[in-house]
């Protein structure tokens, strides 16, 4: 099974360059290309790709708005921002909306390809500068713990394994359950802890342990 990818990027040369490199890989395939936000918003639910490479500043809307509107409709689709914006507002609004990765344009194609594989397997790939920004933000502002007591023992076990850096498929193998079951548990964890992504969930878990 190839990883199915949609590209939402209004810069045609970059969009086509991404498609060419991705399609060259044996384990992934571009199933849709969109050059404006409204087209992506209208058609992505029918395509339901594994991964979406999303630009932030599209000509007709923000990529963040697309994620906010589609995340519930596409719970199994992972969104990676691929943009030239590195400011706090765009980074954190993207993560709050449900993006699981954030890459700065200019990253090598190798980094982009490994990020697609990473996010597909349950990772949260980020450019180095973005990861530092996220970590320093959480050091400044520790979130209050809500909902930890609501987690089942199995959900706590999965959260512990996520915090150790294990991918979904590794957790599935360790607990003798399917990847889909892991994803369902992770969705319940996010809902109970009132978080939108893995980084926030792990941060809350670590804060609780300490």
UniProtKB/TrEMBL annotation:
Name listed for the protein in its UniProt record: Response regulator transcription factor
Stretches assigned to the Response regulatory domain: 4-120
Keywords annotated in UniProt: DNA-binding, Phosphoprotein
Membrane-spanning intervals of the chain: none
Keyword presence, DNA-binding: yes
Gene3D superfamilies: 3.40.50.2300
Organism: Chryseobacterium salviniae
Domain (HTH luxR-type): residue spans on this chain: 144-209
InterPro entries, sorted: CheY-like_superfamily, NreC/VraR/RcsB-like_REC, Sig_transdc_resp-reg_C-effctor, Sig_transdc_resp-reg_receiver, Tscrpt_reg_LuxR_C, WalR-like
């Amino acid at each position: 099974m190839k990883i199915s990818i949609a590209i939402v990027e209004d810069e045609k040369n970059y969009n086509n360059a991404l498609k060419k490199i991705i399609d060259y890989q044996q384990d992934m395939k571009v199933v849709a290309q969109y050059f404006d936000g409204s087209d992506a918003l209208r058609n992505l639910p029918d395509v339901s790709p594994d991964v979406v490479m999303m630009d932030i500043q599209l000509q007709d809307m923000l990529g963040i708005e697309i994620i906010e509107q589609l995340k519930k409709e596409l719970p199994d689709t992972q969104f990676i921002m691929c943009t030239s914006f590195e400011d706090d507002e765009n980074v954190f609004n993207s993560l709050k909306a449900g993006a699981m990765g954030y890459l700065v344009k200019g990253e090598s194609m190798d980094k982009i390809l490994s990020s697609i594989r990473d996010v597909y397997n349950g990772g949260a790939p980020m450019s180095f500068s973005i990861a530092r920004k996220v970590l320093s933000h959480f050091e400044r502002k520790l979130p209050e713990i809500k909902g930890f007591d609501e987690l089942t023992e199995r959900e706590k076990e999965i959260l512990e394994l996520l915090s150790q850096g294990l991918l979904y498929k590794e957790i599935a193998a360790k607990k003798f359950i399917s990847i889909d079951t892991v994803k369902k548990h992770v969705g319940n964890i996010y809902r109970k802890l009132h978080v939108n992504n893995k980084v926030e969930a792990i941060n809350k878990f670590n804060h609780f342990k300490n």
